[in-house]
Amino acid sequence: MKVESGKWKVLVLVCVSIAFHFPLSTSHSASAQVGNLGKFDSRLLHYGIQVGYTQSMFDLEYSDEAALRQTLQGVTSYYAAGFHIAVIGDLRLNDWFNLRLLPGVTLVTREITYSWEAGYLPTHPLTERRRSVESVYGDLPLELKFRAKRYGNFRPYLTAGVSYGFDFASLRENKNQSDQSIIRLQPHDFRYSLGVGFDVFLRYVKFAIEFKMNLGLVDLKVEDPDIYIRSFNNVTTRTFMLSFTFEG
Question: Is this prediction's pTM over 0.70?
Answer without folding.
Answer: yes
